[in-house]
Structures
1.
Amino acid sequence: MPMDPRHAILFEPVRIGPKTLPNRFYQVPHASGFGTRRPRAQAAFRGVRAEGGWGGVCVEYAPVSPDSDEIPAVAANIWADGDGPALALTAAAIHAHGALAGLELVHGGAGSANGSSRLPRIAPSQAASGVQWGGLAKEMTRDDIGRVQRDWVSAARRACDAGFDIVYVYGAHGYLLSQFFSPQTNHRTDGYGGSLANRGRFWLETLAAVRDKVGGECAIATRVTVHGDPGVPGAAGLPGIEVEEMLALVAMADELVDLWDVTVGAWPDDSGTSRYFPEGHQRPWTHRVREATAKPVVAVGRYTSPDLMAEIIRTGAVDLIGSARQAIADPFLPRKVAEGRLDEIRECTGSNICILREETFRQIGCAQNATAGEEYRRGWHPEIFGPTSDDRPVLVVGGGPAGMECAVVLGKRGFTAVHLAEAQAELGGRLRWIRRLPTLGDWGRIVDWRRVQLSQLTAVQVITGCRLTRRDVLQYGASVVVVATGSSWRGDGVQPGHPAPMPGADSRAPHVLTPEQVCAGQRPPGRRVIVYDTDGYFMGPALAELLAAEGFDVTVATVYPVLSPVSDETLEGETLRAHLHRAGVGVCHGVTVTAVDSSAVHGVDRYGDPWTAECDGVVLVTQQVSQDALYRELTADPSALEQAGIAAVHLVGDAVAPRLISEAVFDGHRLGREIDRADAGLPALWRSERPNPAGPAPRR
Ligand code: ADP
């Protein structure tokens, strides 16, 4: 398909200082969890985004000084001469596809962890530095200021020598440059505090010094924060940084900067989830930077639609479409736009599972793109699937995220006969009903992308409304069976630490409901409802919001000290709690429900004292259970399998263990890639990385 001419504007080159970006797709710096610790994984992860057509591809935060040490988080440290070669691998991988490579040079100041270096944190002012990791920061002397600036310059030199085209003087997200700029964190009375010009001096001097050293060779980018929406918790801007002041700084620094990279508010706002922030919610703020500069501007907006991207460029407010999460979800978005393959774009769900995984020191991952982070260690490519010579017919039972993903991968690999059988009339598994809950609509993109893919794969036949029994499977004529029958919520009150059914908890009674029952339309017999939540993520709050909107008097009783602690890992905890508060939902923290009757729930509070809440009904968001009966029945009788010509039966997704949707997708994907290995039931071992990139490549 040819490109839609309306999208041609996205493929115009953009000059930034001494460099030219080949198009307007720009992968902004974002954490990957690879840093310089896993240089090959970093290189493969960024390289595939360049291959997919992103014209600029940036690496995450690269602290310029040892007193900006992020451990336990993983950063791309560049404070020592040996740090360059690790990053050179990444710059080369990006260049191999004609893109420009950027590096986020940063100093965290008072926000640094310094867990490894054991150096004191540094800040413009001690009193205003805030307590973190058990102590206050050192107030920077003039010598410290000069030293950090020299570190920045040396780091910029190393970055250029490593092949980077764009170096950042990064001030967003409350790092050291912002700490100097904000009067709340800068109480200095010398030339670096007080007036706007003084508070901006450290930033401007650093820009000038970096420009002096590498300006002719590299483009200089700086990332600023403008105000966010004052009505949204966690989004009301960075403390003390006002938009008018920031615009004044942009005007003052303009001649030193080749690319303005603009964010809003604090990170939970800038990377707000789709549950609470629509695409492009930052526009009223970020687009104001154009008032102060004619230089190229990039801003993010979790844009997934090329129509919207082109429209935004046409406004003239920004020159580049910045993206982190969409580039994780679909590294090949630009190429798909260029080739008019719009229905193949894997749209980001905005669930921030990438952030949850990476920020909690897991391998980065994505609910839409199972290959994210697996480019090097598993050798997975988002668009290339090792072809198979295996022509055995495969039956996939269960059309949830795991079964759909597995069938898509099998179809793309060239399996000639794949049948995907789903009991319900619609594909999607648990997402069929989750996507209909308040705020969770965009998660349905996981189903939509796979449904479109399946419709285009002629070798895959989808059969819906067909619940297969053991007998059906044995008679089906398949040689390989994948059981992806998922999980369901328990209706008996079994919960973590309490493996016995809860007295009175029986979802056959009208006053006891499971999440599935609520979504199927069942309601408690009276107005007062307790949602009992030991799950800690989205399900309890979403059901509470649904019922509150219908006029029920809803309280969430949670075992945790805060409502939905998992949502803090996806950056949406504060917003979620405010949202529910405004929806009129009450919360009881730290309670364990141990019994239910038709007029109350009973249990203990966090101190072990008795606790009771009167109610007309309870929704149990306690624990899920794998629906693996079909797998157990099939594998219990190997001779019946042999007679039926079934060589292998595999179990994937929630039917193995109920997990995040991203993990069910990953599981289905993994099996699809490895199903023709001799021992496909066991995941193949992945490559581990030795830290020395100059050494011989590790072998699998
Ligand atoms: P996962 O996330 O692991 O894909 P889900 O629970 O979301 O799990 O989806 C499992 C799907 O399997 C559901 O759509 C369910 O209707 C379907 N299913 C369960 N048992 C059978 C069966 N015996 N035959 C066909 N489909 C089934």
2.
Amino acid sequence: MTLNIQQISPVLGAIATGADLASGITDETFEGLHQAWLEHDGVLVVRGQALSHEQHIEFSRRFGDLDHHVVTQFVPEKYPELYRVSNKPGEGGKYLGNPQAGNHWHTDNSYLDPPAKASLLYAAEVPPVGGDTLFASMYRAYETLSPALRKVLDRLEAEHHFENALSNFSTFKATDRQIDATPPVRHPMVTVHPDTGRKSLYVNPGFTTRIVGMNADESEAILRFLFSHATQPQFIYQHRWQAHDLVIWDNRCTMHYAVQNFYGVGTRDLYRTTVKGDAKAA
Ligand code: OGA
Ligand code: MN
């Protein structure tokens, strides 16, 4: 099988065919996939993969060490590396996964230090229509700001807090243990990608609470501007899922948004692994 990579939108993303992840891939094929992922600004769709949980986890490990999600009620028993995103009802009518995962623009785990490097979301079952995921290029967001504003942002840090997304976008409440495990952290507002050397804007509406050193009005106005700037339609790829898609995204240079329009339409059942980021150089 020969690996084939096709661009899927003018701004970011590619689709790979000719790789069968379930039967194991060579280092050379992995290198081809990894390179395509970097070159297409951090979104790669690998279609038609029938993956067991073990195969999904094993392939994900090629990107680095995997995180165990803090929201443990959606972590499947026996698979601490997985996080289930699902509107499938289980016993007692409780959802088997988080049906509201990512119903706002965000970057996975920006509330951790170091924040996540990559996420690999696998679709076991998808509705006939609806439940698309939007991806925005944060390279593009940064590159389209004026040199004057880039210069200011280059020197600033912002605070990120897990609890922010829950209080603003979710009907689930965090437990005391989850809140205690995720104190606010600070990251530069502009980060340099370790593999591509390109700069990205690194703030997101889900978890970014404020710009360090600014008063509340300044911080809110600038963040509001940056969020609307970054999410303009021309900076976005909209992924329409097919069952057995594996979508790999780079949390260091993208944001994503799960469109919540599938209730009553069909079952949406996905599993995610999250690859830990590299620790900052001391
Ligand atoms: C996630 C997430 C998006 C989706 O799992 O990190 O944001 O479309 N999900 O389900
Ligand atoms: Mn997410």
3.
Amino acid sequence: MRLACSECGVDAASGSLFCSECRGLLEFRLDPAPHDVHALRLLFKERRASNDSLDQSGVWRFRELLPAIAPEHVVTLRENAIPVYRAQAGAVYADATRLAYLHLGMNPTASFKDAGMTVAISSARSRGSRVAICASTGNTAASMAAYAARAGMSAIVLVPAGGVSEAKMAQTLDYGATVAAIDGDFDRALEIVRTFDSERVAIVNSINPYRIEGQKCAAFVLLESRRWNAPDWIVVPGGNLGNTSALGKGFREARDLGLLTRIPKIAVVQAAGAAPFANVFRDGGDLVPVEAETDATAIRIGAPASWRKALGEVRASDGTVISVGDDEIAEARAIVGRDGVGCEPASAASLAGLRKLREDDTIARDDDVVLVLTGHVLKDSAYAAAFHASVARLANKIVRLPDEAALRALVDRASAVYA
Ligand code: F0G
């Protein structure tokens, strides 16, 4: 694998974050050397039955397709051992017949960030870094804190004051990170982080190409669960757009290696108050940053760093980018809950987006669709509690029963439904 600029293609030194020629983001490029795809598929499958910690990781299990890192430097929490669930309530809600959830919220720190973080922190440790830093809306923070703790590194997090779920902050503090709240938003926090020297501190936001390599493995896990058959569509929430870049890269590489014959179309869904990528997809030209505002705090991002990479992936897949309102996200999130699955608000943008794409028939009723759920329901329990206490159509209010007889009547009514 070689590290090169994602924009001008010039080779880059490992450990750097930006191209020395044009300041573009870097990316790893897989060697064109032929692989025996049957042998690879078998190897990946056999490792799932192994007790080795690297083999049990849904990232390191695919290590032939990752930058080389010596096993003694790898920091793993067995990330990406993630389920694909059939969506039932979600399918009815979006009027789609073949729908599944790829639940990346079932990762060790309960979000998709772990798949990238294991590679970024392992790489930092192999270079002898002592300190890791990131800007975050909460999930990157928790993930970095956990992996840094395992690696014996210090973790420093910059978050927008007041703009992050309490549960994510508590989790990050638990893992021992230093959390610095700033007066600006996520975009300002990332701007500050970018001023640090990446030779001195490990910057582990998704501008770090090692993060992208780990996160691309979610595509492999999904494909493996489907015997290396791609769905027609994959629908993913978009914030800083590292994940869109990573998933697109994963599918493309799998196709280029001969592991699958066609890639899925990628639909990116943003929150309407934080949708600069939807704008640039529609209007063309350069991305115009916005002042981001949405209740889905994980994706409250106005100047996404990876927009060029992500746009390349969406176009290469013949996909699309749309935005949905906060009310649509809230309702879709409740529906994912009714499936006995659950997710945090930002994740539900994918179901809200699918519903919209079904309404205008961009996605056909019988298309084979996978929704990416990026974070666990408990990541923002305060949001869920507030929703159920509200007047929303799907709010599920806590009931007060006057006496035991009322409870018995309730059980009788519930039983009658099945009679
Ligand atoms: N979903 C969740 C739950 C997230 O936490 C994020 C990003 C996204 C979607 C968007 O992914 O940025 O790769 O497009 N959270 C970051 C963080 C920014 O700091 O935790 P993206």
4.
Amino acid sequence: MGSVTLDYGNMLAPRLLGRGVDPRDLDGELAQAFRAALAEMEALRSSGELGFFALPEAVDQARSIQALADSFGQWFENIVVLGIGGSALGTITLRDALLGPHWNELDAEARDHYPRLFVLDNVDPRTVGSLLDRIDLRRTLFNVVSKSGSTAETMAQYLVVEGRLREVLGDEPTRGHFLVTTDPRQGALRALAEREGIPSLEVPANVGGRFSVLSAVGLLPAAAVGIDIQGLLEGARNMARRAMIADLRRNPAGMLAVLLHHAHTRLGSPVHVLMPYCDRLRSFAAWFQQLWAESLGKAVDRAGATVNVGPTPLPALGATDQHSLLQLFMEGPRDKVVMFMEVKEVPDPVPIPHLHPDVPALSYLGGHTLAELLGVEMRATMEALRQAGRPNLLVEVDALTPQAMGELFMLFQAATVLAGALYGVDPLDQPGVELSKRLTYGLLGREGYERPTLAHSDESWRV
Ligand code: PA5
């Protein structure tokens, strides 16, 4: 079956004080809606619009990516990805999930002499400037990642880095410190790479930013830090097969999409919380947030009618956010579905010693492990929500392996496309981000863009 399982018992009415999904609908109305969504996904896939489905099959391409990563040897101490949104979040997720969020703090030996991996996914000068001041630029590779090849933030980062490298390298060419990952033909970055002789990788034309983690976008940085990218693709292939199964009860992507859409449109729960009980998956929840929001929040449906639909994804972390969000989840508006995530295998569960037997608030913990406590807290929270009639489900992961990450990425990508069909919107576009881009270009004086007049605040509205 694979190493990822969906347990949706706490979404069902008999378990949820009558408030959830009627299980009979899973073989009736919901199964029917799912079959229509699956047919739409199949049509998009056959017409070549869903390029992300083909990525796990591109095994030879992954071998070339691996060969390129291997060719760096131990020369680069740092790899810095310059990119934003879908060009950054997948790489951050891979690093944090498979190497741990503290990878960059380890010394070279503990990293097995693989480089540090930084992802600059913003243009905050405090972050960019301090990173560039801190690392040895002579031993750093900058991977400029942009599908469109023109995103302002990424282009600005490139210019800043190119300027710094010129200062450090003098007459030496800077191109050996760059790699470009972009569209095969279009965009300023592609043209620049060709003109400057910068080595480049391709993001297939039919793969959009937020669906690109299993392309060169995520694979090159992953391979460069020793992650098994063939394992990633293997897991993704496995889930891609499961996501095409026509029986809703055997299709985890279909079940996820159908239940979340139903919870939104019928149960009044448009807020979809993803709450891993695993620090290493915190970035996965951020990756999901972008995927779900940008794909499903749309003004018009496929027929062009104004609908202004879309669920609101909310990333959270267990057990930490039990102490910030849980009160709201339990007693606030009934507008949420909580998706818990658990990784079953914990290599070092960290035993809790038996100390202070005379202090009851401490002594009951002795003899258990931190892994046990984390797992118990998650199950207790699921049960508390269930008893309060609040829908929730569990994404169970056997172990944090490249295969499992491949499965998870594909599970949520396929669920997003299926949810797009259920909401009746195009999950692949993002027209809503264009206006602010145009205004930015105009304000910065880009050729071809008029300088806009912004609505200014009135002094009397300031306090
Ligand atoms: O998913 C998307 O399409 C976006 O989030 C993009 O990834 C983001 O805007 C960056 O775009 P680009 O990769 O073209 O620089």
